[in-house]
Amino acid sequence: MRKAAWTVTAWAVGIVFVFPVLWMVLTGFKREQDAASNPPAWLFHPTLDQYRQIFGRNVTPYLLNSLMASGFSTLLVLVLATPAAYALSMRPVGKWRDALFFFISTKMLPAVAALLPIYLVVKQLGMLDNIWTMVILYTAMNLPLAVWMMRSFLLEVPRSVVEAAAVDGAGLGLTIRKVIGPIVSPGIAATALICFIFAWNEFFFAVNLTATRSGTAPIFLVGFISSEGLFLARLCAAATLVSLPVLLAGWLAQNKLVRGLSMGAVK
User: Fold this and answer.
1) Which residues constitute the domain of residue 118?
2) Which of 33, 157, 199, 217 is placed for a possible disulfide with 242 were both Cys, Cβ 3.0 to 4.6 Å?
3) CA distance 77 to 136
4) How many helices (H) and strands (E) does the chain have?
């Protein structure tokens, strides 16, 4: 009975979390009058008109900008975070606790407090509405979190494996690529996916530092909230479309993601 109760509870919690996403997907197939009806229309004639209008507004550049900013920033984060986490876990430097606190303390600064100096610097460099500006910002934004996550994963690597590689003459780069990398690959996948999601969903800096050339997917969604009103069905259809790349990435990496997020949970 206890097992059955936990099963029912887990399903109920899962439905509560999934229902808003399911409702968003269903609303994307409604007409605007059905989406705005009160009480909500449970029975409706599905239509693809909202998706036709989205593609008619040329959503592709926004998706490509988000993919470029998120992909390149995630790659840079992994390249920088892995050796940093290695130094803080396998070969701790002096005052490594202070270094870890410094990394995480950068996340304590509110984004709005950093916006003005960042905007002034970017303007002076002539990099407003530039996708590479977003790549640099997203890299800086996700790097502290990635260092902490990668350090926790690297702590699970047996020291004997690293020492054996050193005895065989492997340098630092070769050790990270050929020895440590395969062991912590689930952790790397989990870190990469989380950084990708954070970069893909980032809105505050994108709406203030980009315009027409480098607008990302969240900026495209704002276009459906105008002085004419809220186009709810079209907004839900666009949000569903924007969510697909992240869902696809999570589905492709689900095996490594589960293993990565559970590394260190059981001794």
Assistant:
1) 59-263
2) 217
3) 10
4) 15, 2
The long-range contacts involving 172-180, CB below 8 angstroms and separated by at least 24 positions, are 172/83, 172/86, 176/82, 176/83, 176/86, 180/86, 180/90, 180/154
Return the C-alpha torsion angle 241, 246, 252, 254, nearest 10.
-130
Q: Is the peptide bond before 20 cis (omega within 30 degrees of 0)?
A: no
Number of domains in the chain: 1
Pair 204, 138: CB distance under 8 Å: no
Q: Provide the b/e sequence for 75-102 (b: ≥16 CB within 10 Å).
A: ebbbeebbebbbbbbbeeeeeeeeebee
Q: Is residue 115 part of a domain?
A: yes
Where the chain has pLDDT below 70, the residues are: 92, 227-229, 255-267
Domain presence at residue 86: yes
Check which CATH number belongs to the domain holding 217 and give it.
1.10.3720.10
- Does 52 map to a domain? no
| Distance in angstroms (rounded) separating the CA atoms of residues 116 and 107 | 17
Angle at 234 between CA 252 and CA 131, to 5 degrees: 60
Cα–Cα distance measured from residue 267 to residue 261, given in angstroms and rounded to the nearest whole number: 14
**Backbone phi and psi for residue 97, each to the nearest 5 degrees, phi listed first:** -65, -40
Taking only the tens place, the pLDDT of each residue in 236-255 is: 999 999 998 888 887 877 76
Structure tokens at 73: 């920033």
Tell me what pLDDT residue 262 has: 61
CB 221 within 8 A of CB 180: no
